[in-house]
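Posting this for the archive.
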Amino acid sequence: MHVFQLDVELFMQIQEAFQPDFYQALCDADTDSNSSRKRCIKSMDRTLDFLDKIIDKHNEKEVNILISSFWYDWIARVSTGFG
């Protein structure tokens, strides 16, 4: 079985091919109310890492980026400014 992994490089290649007016940044939103604090922090860190990489690659483009967060851990939300 082949596992498909969408990383920042492939994500940005897709965005460049479609040339949208805006797109939503990648996020690790696989958390729910039963997720541990450790999992929520990992999700937050991965999402912010994705965002940093996307912004670095996106610098010279005139496109709006939609950023959303779905962390159930209130400390994670507040510490990023998305709370």
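Residues 22-80 form one domain. Residues 37 and 78 are 13 Å apart (CA to CA).
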